Amino acid sequence: MIRDDRLPRDAQSILELAARSMFELFANASEGMMLVDRNARVVWINDQYRRFLPALGFQREEDFVGHPVSSVVQNTQMHQVLATGKPILIDLLTNKAGTFVVSRIPLRDDAGEVIGVLGIVLFDHPETTLQPLISKFARLEQDLSDARRELASQRRTKYTFASFVGSSAAALEVKRQARRAAQSSSPVLLLGETGTGKELLAHAIHAASPRAGRPFVSVNMAAVPDTLLEAEFFGVAPGAYTGADKKGRDGKFKLADGGTLFLDELGDMPMSVQVKLLRALQEGEIEPLGSNKLVSFDVRVVAATSRDLQQMVRDGSFREDLYYRLNVLP
Fold first, then answer.
1. 73, 56 in Cβ contact below 8 A?
2. What is the largest CA-CA distance in the chain?
3. Are 61 and 204 within one domain?
């Protein structure tokens, strides 16, 4: 019985009447109901549920009622509801009797302690009764799969090692080193003057690596204003600031997850972003702007610059610890 001492007597009576009415409604409209006690034993089933017993392997009701629910119903989640006290309102349950749409609702005593669980079979044969919903879900899954393929195709590499033209000893040595680097997961630092093919080589390294099927995402430090670089790297949480997208926006680290992140014109990165980039590379986690939640990522970093980073380190305009973090395979 439901009691709430804060309610007037008339209101308490109405609440109890509503509870009985709801129970009777579910008992009559559902495909079956069962109760388990605080020890997860089946203590009651209604008439509709009895028709499932032969399919579950029980000829007599007494072989089912009074036994632990996990021993008589395969794949049951009654234990989870007993342990957490939280209902499972809609779920698919598959066992020997078939596939069902079910609800599981915790029952509490006057002190608020969970004393049992009410299990309700809402529908059997969901493939028929829920066909419109299942079809819609299948269409949404297909649309999501198509969108992911389209995004992946847009972020594939444009070049391979065959695109890197050159037959001199120096060019062949560069290609040899790059091919070896492609098989590693360590950061790569591409050094050279403007126009020598650093970006092309970054694409080729990704295309020859185990990550070739994953995204290749590039950030040009010289092309993004300093004030936007942090958002470009780490993303923005929903509603992080006035005018921010209500859905938030993923940064390049998130977009490149599982693939390669190419940092072009590395020497133009401001010191404030260098600190946060170093921390992200060390921890393998990012924190989007306006969020307190850390997001893990898995990217392989390839960086390129036409500037003399060693001189910049000596001048104090580039962090020495970040330089050595990225200069693993120069």
1. yes
2. 96
3. no
The length of the chain, given as a count of residues = 330
Q: Does the pLDDT value for residue 281 go beyond 60?
A: yes
* Residue closest to 223 by CA, chosen among 253, 266, 192: 266
Write down the pLDDT at residue 1.
Answer: 46
Final residue of a structural domain among 81, 111, 129? 129
Residues 89 and 164 in one domain: no
- Per DSSP bridges, beta strands 88-95 and 98-108 are antiparallel
- Domain of 181: which CATH number? 3.40.50.300
Give yes or no for residue 40 having a pLDDT over 80. yes
Helix axes 226-234, 271-283, angle to 10 degrees: 10
Number of domains in the chain: 2
User: Angle 78-81-87 (CA atoms, 0-180°, nearest 5)?
Assistant: 115
The kind and range of the H/E element at 55 are: helix 53-56
Measured between its terminal Cα atoms, the distance across the chain in Å is: 74
- Judged by DSSP in three states, 143 sits in helix
Copy the structure tokens of residue 26: 């579910």
Tens of pLDDT along 72-130?
998 899 988 999 999 998 888 888 888 888 899 999 888 889 999 999 998 776 556 56
Q: Which residue has the tokens 């290609």?
A: 175
Are 248 and 315 members of one domain? yes
| Cα dihedral 283, 289, 291, 293 in deg (nearest 10) | -20
Report the CATH number that the domain containing residue 108 is assigned in CATH. Answer: 3.30.450.20
